[in-house]
Amino acid sequence: MLSAVDIFEHFSTSDAEWILSTAAEIDLSQDDILITAGGQVDFLYFVMQGLLGIFVPNVNEKLTVLGPGDLVGEMSLLEARPPTESVIALEATKILALPHSAVRSKGEEDPSFSARLHFALACLLSQRLRRANRQLAVQTDTDTVNRTGNPEWKRLAMAMQEFKELLHEANQTALKNEDLVPEEAATRVVDRFLTFLPLMNEVHDAAEGDDRLVEEIGLRSQYEFLPYLLLTETAERFYSKPRGYAGDYWSIELMYRNQPSGTSRIGALVDRCFLSAPACAAVRNRRGLLAEEIASTIADRTESPAQISSLACGPASEVFDVFETVNDRSQAKFNLLDIDLQALAFVAERRDKSRLGRSISLISENLINLILGRSEAPVAKQDLIYSIGLIDYFNDKLVVKLLNLIHGMLDEGGRVILGNFHPRNSAREFSNHVLDWKLIHRTEDDMNRLFAASYFGRPCTNIRFEAEGINLFAECMKQ
Among residues 429, 420, 426, which one has the least CA distance to residue 471? Predict the structure, then answer.
């Protein structure tokens, strides 16, 4: 089970076009069996929409959930052996099925394609094996990292121990206080957690270049934090990824609501730690920043409604914030695109309650399909196209392709705004290793380079930061 997004990074444009033209689109209903353990697998499957569950046969134990962008069937392609797990649709799911026979024939006709494919699979399988080995090492040898003698790791280990001791004290105090943690004790825990986050970045940066050490430190940190993380509501959702990916619409909504919750006496307190992190504050701040930009676009349009699109819209709370401030709802038409049908259903319910059916259109669309040319852009002549938290998951090649797509959707003088976390995010390595919420952090120079490489052909016309200074928003106008 590998990432199709990462696979496409190794392919040429003609490779991607061949895959998309050869693969067949298949719709699965909930509980449909895609792969049976011990059966024959004849296709590479790319998940385009929905969720697949990987199950151990007989005991019916779910190992993991795969969502949009994931790939299955690669092991059977490489080894021609039956799978050991079953793959079942957890909800209505859309996939692309690429026949193994077609892949083999293509490889025989075009050896360079075969080389690129097998190199990509080898890289990704190697990453998965290396991570599994490190996880096993951490679970079976508690002194693995300590024996490196790395002084930075010792600082981190000490900080983790102090945090755990404070949690223990808070729990003991709650036992004598009707299961409530006093505010003074809670504040000490949160403050210690907030000092731990940048320390984890420092330790990671100091160990950079030693991949083994970096990986072991990350896995050890997750191993230490996991029992507490599982008590929370918000942080646990990022870790478990019930929609197949971190940062789904409900995870974002929980950060917007900022109401810590969890199980046991300290679950809500640990959740509060996570929600108090600057990264979560930045998520809340960016909602207001985008609302400002949207309102500015609406104000600039006097003769006709502003045409605005949000890509990977999630809960789209910033859109509803804007409608609370405008006097005339007919001043703007929104197109909200998302791959997650639950996200669109969530927004639809709020839209209908707010009586905004004429102002908000919801579009179920896979942006990878659009970027790779499998689908036509659903809207055009837009005044503003924005995405708050999408390109943090995209490699540079996909970001440039996305910008090219957006360029074609914009009207002359229209603007694009793309959000991305900056490397100074204090929760960068905690997110990456503990929550397994992997983001690509980018600087201002990175964003300027990507825009210049796209059809926009120049650096950003403006870069803004939200109040925490760790979530940037790069803007460019179509000339």
Answer: 420
Closest CA to 220 of 153, 316, 270: 153
pLDDT tens profile 406-453: 999 999 999 999 999 999 999 999 999 999 898 999 999 999 999 999
Q: Which two tokens stand for residue 69?
A: 């962008």
pLDDT band at 137 (very low <50, low <70, confident <90, very high): low
Instruction: Give me 392's structure tokens.
Output: 């943090």
**Residue 97, domain extent:** 2-139
Structure-token pair, residue 406: 């957006």
What's the total number of domains in the chain?
3
Residue 306 and residue 414 in one domain: yes
pLDDT of 106 over the 70 cut: yes
Give me the chain's average pLDDT, please: 90
19 vs 35, which has greater pLDDT? 35
What's the rounded Cα separation, in Å, for the pair 158 and 397? 40
Confidence of residue 32 (pLDDT cuts 50, 70, 90): very high
Under DSSP, the state recorded for 434 is I
Cα distance between residue 190 and residue 242, in whole Å: 26
Q: Do the Cβ atoms of 341 and 49 come closer than 8 Å?
A: yes
Per-residue pLDDT at 7: 66
CB-CB contact of 89 with 50 (8 Å): yes
Structure tokens at 144: 């693995």
Closest by Cα among 65, 226, 257 to 139: 226
Residues 130 and 15 in one domain: yes
The gap from C-alpha 399 to its chain's centroid, in whole angstroms, comes to 14
Q: Phi first, then psi: what are they for 11, rounded to 5°?
A: -95, 155
The residue from 250, 276, 302 where one domain ends is: 276
Residue among 242, 265, 264 nearest 254 (CA):
242
Q: How far apart are CA 313 and CA 320, in angstroms?
A: 12
**Type of residue at 48:** M
In a shared domain, residues 272 and 301: no
Q: Are residues 69 and 92 in the same domain?
A: yes
Residues 79 and 196 both lie in one domain: no
Query: What pLDDT score was predicted for residue 427?
Result: 96
Provide the pLDDT for residue 409: 96
Reply yes or no on whether the pLDDT at 385 is more than 80.
Answer: yes
First to last CA, the chain: 42
> Which amino acid does the sequence have at 452?
A
Domain match, 294 and 433 both:
yes
Q: Are residue 405 and residue 306 in the same domain, yes or no?
A: yes
59: domain CATH number? 2.60.120.10
